[in-house]
Design goal:
The protein has about 375 residues and is of the alpha/beta class. Helix content is about 50%, strand content about 10%. The protein has two domains: about 130 residues, no CATH class; about 190 residues, TIM Barrel (Alpha-Beta Barrel), CATH 3.20.20.370.
Length: about 375
């Protein structure tokens, strides 16, 4: 009977999910201004917030069948989708309220909005005139917002049967929402690379920029790296950085029977090898973890850390496409944890591009040690 149920669950998973659509990308050349001041960052941020809010509102007019068809799914969890929508509305209004504080310096995309109800009403009729300075942004921006919303709603539609970063299981999990406005944290998954690989160049680059990032490492990768080099070289690799854990191997910790052992082994390895860089943070591969896992993590003095901005640097996007996606999401969410993969050579190129594009924008980079030691 148990085998039959497992087979049926697997069959449902295959029929409920189809291949996801290509990830959202946006060519920033469609935006006519450089983000070379805090006020211009806010102008672009207000535009992204209003544009995304409009397509979010339009999606609420779809019935369950139309929504499933749009997301290329057989079934959707409408309760989960509505919960995510409600959270998105709250955050969009909060972000817009912050972004409109500079309206006296530049009134572009500024409206007299005092609360969430007014915000929803305004965004429902949001338009940009055909002769506007920003007219060239409208259609490419709308396409990005629709594709990105589909990404979020698809994850919501599958949650919690397929866990992801779209929702927290408890307030003990962190996703960057607690950061201050305009503050971002660089995070990297799946490393370290082989000796002389992309992790080496990236950590050296970050040190030159006087930046500290959080690296969520795999226990087997860390052990192989140490065995083929030395403990001293491993510690030099992560000098000035923070190191959390991602389990012993890059595998879903949602259904794996050995997930607890994976966490404990990797925790012991990181604490033992990198005591100065260790931070008590765990990032689940693919964002997948058990809904009832919080007691275990609390017993190990670990916090689950998700993300809210993904670079999609493991897929087919070029480094420039990945960078422009991240910057657009930074404008939309105004703070958060950015997920990269340091085993991907493009990660350093993306970070370098972002630093150049935002140098005068008034944003900041959260200190990884400060973030990692918060309880």
């Amino acid at each position: 009977m148990r085998i039959a149920l497992l087979l049926l669950a697997g069959l449902f998973s295959l029929t409920a999910q189809a291949a996801p659509a290509p990830v959202a990308t946006f060519d920033r050349s469609h935006w006519p201004e450089q983000l070379d001041s805090p006020a211009l960052f806010d102008v672009a941020s207000r535009a992204e917030i209003l544009g995304f809010a409009r397509v979010l509102g339009e999606s609420e007019k779809l019935d369950q069948g139309a929504l499933a068809a749009r997301l290329n799914l057989r079934q959707v969890n409408l309760l989960s989708i509505n919960s995510v929508r409600q959270r998105l509305w709250q955050r969009l209004w909060r972000n817009y309220d912050l972004a409109q504080k500079s309206c006296e310096q530049d009134a572009s995309f500024c409206y007299a909005i005092d609360d969430l109800a007014d915000f929803r009403k305004q965004t429902a009729s949001f338009e940009v005139a055909a002769d506007s300075f920003y007219a060239g942004w409208v259609e490419p921006g709308r396409a990005f917002h629709e594709h990105y919303l589909n990404e979020l709603l698809r994850k919501a539609a599958l949650f919690p049967q397929t866990a992801s970063e779209i929702e927290r299981f408890s307030d003990l999990e962190r996703n960057g929402d607690e950061l201050n406005d305009r503050l971002f944290l660089l995070t990297f998954d799946g490393g370290p690379s082989l000796a002389g690989g992309s992790t080496d160049g990236l950590t050296e680059f970050l040190r030159r920029q006087r930046l500290g990032a959080t690296f969520f490492v795999l226990g087997n990768n860390l052990q192989n790296r140490r065995d083929k080099t030395s403990l001293a070289e491993l510690r030099a690799l992560y000098k000035g950085q923070c190191v959390g854990l991602q389990g012993w191997q890059y595998r879903s910790h949602g259904q794996w029977q050995g997930w607890q052992d994976s966490v404990l082994r990797s925790q012991a390895r990181v604490q033992g090898d990198l005591p100065e860089q260790y931070v008590p943070l765990f990032r689940p591969p693919y964002g997948q973890r058990r809904a009832d896992s919080q007691a275990f993590f609390a017993s190990q003095h670990l916090q689950v850390v998700l993300w809210d901005i993904d670079a999609q640097d493991q897929g087919p996007l070029s480094s420039e496409q990945s960078a422009q996606r991240v910057l657009t999401l930074m404008l939309l969410w105004r703070k958060g944890l950015i997920q990269f993969h340091d085993a991907q050579p493009k990660a350093q190129e993306v970070v370098a591009w972002l630093l150049k594009q935002t140098a005068q924008s008034g944003i900041g980079w959260e200190d990884c040690r400060n973030f990692g030691e918060k309880s």
